[in-house]
Amino acid sequence: LVWGSMNSFAMLRPPWRARSSIAMSRMSRFHLSSGVRIETDTQYDIQFRAAYAGTALAFRDRLIIEWNKTQQRQTFADQKRVYYLSLEFLMGRALDNAMLNVGLKDVAQDGLSELGFRVEDVINQEHDAALGNGGLGRLAACFLDSLATLNYPAWGYGLRYRYGIFKQEIIDGYQVEIPDYWLDFNPWEFPRHDITVDIQFYGHVIRYQDEYGKTVNSWQGGETVQAVAYDVPIPGYGTKTTNNLRLWSSKATSGEFDFQKFNAGDYESAVADQQRAETISAVLYPNDNLERGKELRLKQQYFWCAASLYDIVRRFKKTRRAWREFPDQVAIQLNDTHPTLAIVELQRILVDLEGLDWDEAWHIVTHTFGYTNHTVLPEALEKWSVPLMQNLLPRHLQIIYDINLFFLQSVEKRFPEDRDMLARVSVIEESHPKMVRMAHLAIIGSHKVNGVAELHSDLIKTTIFKDFVAIYGPDKFTNVTNGITPRRWLHQANPRLSDLIASKLGGFEFLKDLTLLDQLESFVDDKAFRSEWAEIKYANKIRLAKLIKDTTGYSVNPRALFDVQVKRIHEYKRQQLNIFGVIHRYLKIKSLSPEECQKLVPRVSIFGGKAAPGYWMAKTIIHLINNVAAVINKDADVGDLLKVIFIEDYNVSKAEIICPASDISEHISTAGTEASGTSNMKFVLNGGLIIGTCDGANIEITREIGEQNIFLFGTLAEDVEEIRHRHRYDGFRLDENLARVFEEIQKGTFGDADDFSALISSITDHGDYYLVSDDFHSYLTTQELVDEAFQDQDEWIAKSITSVARMGFFSTDRVINEYADSIWNVEPLPEE
Ligand code: H53
Fold this sequence. Notes:
Layout: H1 7-10, H2 22-25, E1 28-32, E2 36-40, H3 43-77, E3 81-85, E4 89-92, H4 95-102, H5 105-114, H6 119-123, E5 129-131, H7 135-149, E6 154-159, E7 167-171, E8 174-178, E9 190-201, E10 204-209, E11 215-220, E12 223-235, E13 242-252, H8 259-263, H9 267-279, H10 295-317, H11 326-329, E14 330-335, H12 341-353, H13 358-368, E15 369-372, E16 383-385, H14 386-392, H15 394-414, H16 419-425, E17 428-429, E18 435-437, H17 438-444, E19 448-451, H18 454-462, H19 466-472, E20 477-479, H20 486-492, H21 495-505, H22 527-552, E21 561-566, H23 575-591, H24 594-598, E22 603-608, H25 616-633, E23 642-647, H26 652-658, E24 664-667, H27 679-685, E25 689-692, H28 698-705, E26 711-712, H29 717-729, H30 736-746, H31 757-764, H32 772-791, H33 793-805, H34 812-824
Parallel strand pairs: 3-6, 3-14, 6-13, 14-15, 15-19, 19-20, 21-22, 21-24, 22-23, 24-25, 25-26
Antiparallel strand pairs: 1-2, 4-5, 7-8, 9-12, 10-11, 12-13, 16-18, 17-18
Bound molecules: (1S)-1,5-anhydro-1-(2,5-dihydroxyphenyl)-D-glucitol.
């Protein structure tokens, strides 16, 4: 079947260049950089892309069959479905995943090799689907994989951005953002021009009494934009269930590409209207844990919520059930507050369009939604200006005011003596301008609110949502600790380790039940097993060293300790702590005699991650890392003892190479700031140890794998506020080693000192909000323990194996089952 459908590529003619000739394919592309780079497509490239296209289309055919069957089965079974609303789905590549799930990778491998291709090279042709910023978007992608694998009837709903997260280039040490146009050839999406929804914006509300004396609110005027569905099949592993991810794309409504204007000769303005409509889904906002309150972002949110809800309601209406049964058929999970308008939109549909009483409608709404909070950082909590909302969504603002009124009335009744509470919990913040607090609206409109790791779920209950716990009681608030899918993050990323584990466990069952990994513990003392384990890590480090060489030009020694910190660049994640630690190490090496240096453990400090384009301090950190790398890497006194690498354009595909290659990885956020973190899980599952703070899921990882297998350091969350207070009022004392590092930066050793003065003064003069100085000493001493431990390779490997054996808890399969039981109340629907 597979090779039958590959005739198209036997002709080696890439479909997206169906009209192209060789001459056209030789066309040069201009590329923005310091100079101008000209890339020329070669015949060789074309062949690889054609091989990719043929292979992808062949596997896609298989998927379509199961996808159709799954949708029919779910419609026929007519049971409760889950809808996961997320503005981000950071999917990465699809072909390898499709091969694994369809299960014919070996056939493809043989076939491709007959034609002279290596399957890995073909897989590498695919452009990452990068419709997300970081942890939140990747979590959504892992959830889809587990939902399908566990046979849950589930849909993802998102936006089909034309531009995903930008591509990062490092030029002269600075981050430069390049647009990520990824849709050139995407065999994994199916345009559904038959599924469209008209979405209204702006306009005004007319209120009148109908013939029965009932008040009617009618939202009129404004403009409409069309949402067009694009469907992406999501195959499960070891099951035929293939769920659907529906992404909405914006387009001018058919009436909107104004033929009147067009015919009147106003062609340009007709095209401009069309472009304005298409702008809504044009680009992913590149901020992670940071909200900027831009109107276009609010438009995106409403556009996507309204289209998704229309779709969900339409599907429900086909069952001809009574409205009160809606929450028995539909569970909608809000991935952060981004989709909170869905709560308002459902209330509007039920009251304004379907004529239900307010209370009846509100009962349905509040039994349908669940809200997941992913952050306590104030700058990430969404607020929308009331005037903006009034203009864009006038009827929704009225509904929000009514929801708030009824809510505040009930609070007032229960807490008559606490007048301040009303101001604290109100959906409307009485600022100038007034703001709509989306988290409050999400809590009020949902039946469950969950955090994403134990510490985080406790923190939201005792800090930002404390009043709501008093109002609703503690049961409304729960914890579901995050996870990762072992299919992508073990089997696909680290096939040799997966094979070795399978050889000991008697098969790949562990990929469906990760707790089976615990059987590995009985092999910890097996010498041959240990050396195979070590050999695989070494091979993975060679693979990463090659990526480093190809992308940075630097050669690194794969025998050195690989120390990795890859994640979005953010002050709270403290890449600055890491690079200051690197400078400290550098200074130490420079001060030692050659004999003393002999005793040191050679280290490669590897960084990667994007900064939000407008986050100047994060960009300064990237600049410092690159300047430090430039100095250290060419210092002959240092040689292989220390290398510093910044891997540009960190993304899912690069993570699949980086995670299996770490000896130690860094998860060093200020305690209480990282909600969970999920890359910590990816590294440990691949046999890397971690150095980290007592923050997010690090705490549960420690509980699972044992304190002796992790390097913890730093201030505890419960002490952070007191220390900040001390900095503010009792003065601040800079750690002496850090002072020495700052002196070196200020001397100009790493380039123009002025470039880094704000970074230093954020610590020395502005309160050191992230406690870099307070934690510096324990960070350095813990890094010394890492060096020491690494010298005993036997013991190190034992820790690595034991840790992997105890990671069963962190599969998204466990996570999804918890959501299904405690929040959604949905059952799996396996094939008979
Ligand atoms: O969500 C991850 C967490 C991580 C947290 C992250 C996140 C974003 O990526 C973006 C916005 C936001 O509010 C939170 O920072 O700790 O692991 C998944 O829950």
